């Protein structure tokens, strides 16, 4: 009996001890699994951190202008499908015009224009300036862009074709090739982004509608909360007020500065001052007098155009999708070595009163303050002017239908009532427009 009792007692004590041993083993195993998971997680985390640091260093190297950067990988031998894959855009535009005066005799009284200046409105149906654009990054340091314009007379011209740096640093950017000058506000914008179908009179008589040149442009953007940029250009001087020639060196130069910012959540602004100087040589100019006669002159010397521009925009809480208002104006003053001094300005407003619908009004004036030719003194008394109304329907952000009415009094004694219907369609890739 005592032996049975002792055996039972030993068995009762052994069972909990065995269970305790199993529990300790399980705990040790769990700890080992946790340590293994922690070690694997830390290794993976360290690997991800190394990849992130390497990517950040590679991104920062071009911006910091570090010389020891690995060259970009060469394309596959023979050229792959994506070896040349630029962003393509196509702007299709057409117009129907109706005028009370013959466009063939169009002129601006008292203002000299180069022979063959294309500033007359069009009659009937015609293809307006349509544009094919190509742009792409070349490598980590350069990008390229080209715009080809198709004109109603079945000709094609190169509007822009340039390369531009992307990583000079310090807010600097260098552009080389053919480009629209950065002077003023409207000049640098392609015509399909304008709020009206045509350029203001001041742009037509002082800049040949738009000034583009072959040369170099250096631009600097200040690292400030206030938008502040400055730029300088030097070029061939191929466009009016310059004249293309085979001279060595530069035929034109420009300086410009712009500033802008926000006022609260609903208002923004931009203002600028620019100076363009060209050196035309043996430039043939035609000037229409107040009584319809035309004087022909040849000019060589300096031609300077000063431009002051300002833009103010309003959109409720910064949301311009439903309603917005844009006020825009520029003043241009042209002077030459022969004491000719003339000026002009325009002021316009474009109001989106509901989604997809906009209306606009523009008024503009020219002033011949000084005319050196005695035969044109009577023209100096006349002040050419023009007033326009615009109504626009945008079915989408890629399409536009526009009706424009204008009372054009550019020619003394010959007022011209103009009606213009225009369509513009955007196909393919198209970047955001400037301010």
Please describe what this structure looks like.
With 435 residues, this protein is an alpha+beta fold. The protein has one domain: Porin (Beta Barrel), CATH 2.40.160.10. The protein contains three helices and 20 strands. The strands form two sheets. The chain has a 16-stranded antiparallel barrel with strand order 1-4-5-6-7-8-9-10-11-14-15-16-17-18-19-20. A hairpin with a 3-residue loop joins strand 10 and strand 11. The radius of gyration is 34 Å and the shape is elongated.
Instruction: Give me the CATH fold name.
Output: Porin
Strand content: over 45%
Domains counted in the coordinates: how many? 1
Helix content: 10-25%
Order of helices and strands: HEEEEEEEHEEEEEEEEEEHEEE
Radius of gyration: 34 Å
What number is the mean pLDDT?
84
Structure annotation, total helices: 3
For the secondary structure, the number of strands is 20
* The first-level CATH class name: Mainly Beta
What distance separates the N and C termini?
Answer: 106 Å
Strand line-up in the sheet with most strands: 1-4-5-6-7-8-9-10-11-14-15-16-17-18-19-20
Overall 3D shape = elongated
| CATH architectural designation | Beta Barrel
CATH fourth-tier homologous superfamily: Porin
Catalogue the unreliable spans: 1-21, 60-82
How many strands, what sense, and barrel or not for the largest sheet?
Answer: 16 strands, antiparallel, barrel
Q: What is the structural class?
A: alpha+beta
Keywords: Coiled coil, Signal
InterPro entries: Porin_dom_sf
Protein name: TonB-dependent receptor
Organism: Caenimonas terrae
